[in-house]
Amino acid sequence: MNVFYGVDLGSRYVKVAIDEPGGYRFLGPYDTAEFYRTYVEPAPGGGVLRRESLGLEEEPALAATGYGRARLGGGAVMVPELEAIVEGVKALTGLAEAVILDVGGQDSKVMLMRDGRMADFAANDRCAASSGKFMENMSAALGMSLQEMGEHYRDPVELSSTCAIFGESELVGLMGEGYELDRLAAGVNQAILRRLLPLLSRFDVRTLVLTGGVAYNAALRGLLGERLGLEPAVPEPPDFVAAVGCCSLARRKGE
């Protein structure tokens, strides 16, 4: 059967992609802890995916990436996350030359893709201030959905703290001083932009591809495009890019 599976076991969410003759099909996102409890059978040397619980067949090749890939060692090909993202961008966009910005649940990565392969990368994995978790915390503090927070960029209130923990406390304090929520949301987006730009500054950005949660934030897309003088490309769906990359690598393994 010409079907292949890819699983991205992220720190916050798990995404599953299915490469089948009619195109890609997607399952999730699933809360990571709930996914392990429901869909992974613990076993020595790494758990085994309960494929039948997800409606998946046993035969097709399976590749896994993300923070939790080692916990899915039974019957899965292990794929480095950055390699999976590059493969997924190629598969979904057809691009072979680009700078890829991925904002995950706990970190941010920038990859330089040349001739369809990763030529260089930079990562911010020591601070959560430009991560998906930071966005979730700040939107919760504002009482906004992530989508709503991503609509605001005008007249931002400057946030002095670049720390994920103290930034939330500062935001609450500014709310108490009476600042408008729209302006505070714009300030959050500006703060995230400030954390991402140093990563991008290492590369000559002519084509920018956004993957992960940042791609859903319209304000950040616009701010990045304005600062870099280009319109970022967004694969569809942007948070399943690594899972799609796993499908491509599973296909190679299967063939």
Properties at a glance:
255 residues, alpha/beta, Nucleotidyltransferase, domain 5, 5-stranded mixed beta sheet, 4-stranded mixed beta sheet, 9 helices, 23% strand, globular
Task: Describe, in plain words, how this protein is organized in 3D.
- Strand 2 (13-20) and strand 3 form a beta hairpin.
- The mean pLDDT is 90.
- With 255 residues, the protein is of the alpha/beta class.
- It folds into 2 domains: 4-82 and 240-254, Nucleotidyltransferase, domain 5 (2-Layer Sandwich), CATH 3.30.420; 96-232, ATPase, nucleotide binding domain (Nucleotidyltransferase, domain 5, 2-Layer Sandwich), CATH 3.30.420.
- It has a 5-stranded mixed sheet with strand order 3-2-1-6-7.
- The chain is built from 9 helices and 11 strands.
- Helix 4 runs parallel beside helix 6 (164-176), helix 4 (132-142) packs antiparallel against helix 7 and helix 7 packs across helix 8 (218-228).
- The protein is 38% helix and 23% strand.
- The longest helix is centred in the C-terminal third of the chain and has 20 residues, at 181-200.
Give the arrangement of secondary structure elements:
Blueprint: E1 4-9, E2 13-20, E3 23-31, H1 32-39, E4 40-41, E5 48-49, H2 51-54, E6 62-65, E7 77-78, H3 81-93, E8 98-103, E9 108-114, E10 117-124, H4 132-142, H5 146-149, H6 164-176, H7 181-200, E11 208-212, H8 218-228, H9 241-254
Parallel strand pairs: 1-6, 6-7, 8-11
Antiparallel strand pairs: 1-2, 2-3, 4-5, 8-9, 9-10
Helix pairs in contact: 3-9, 4-6, 4-7, 7-8
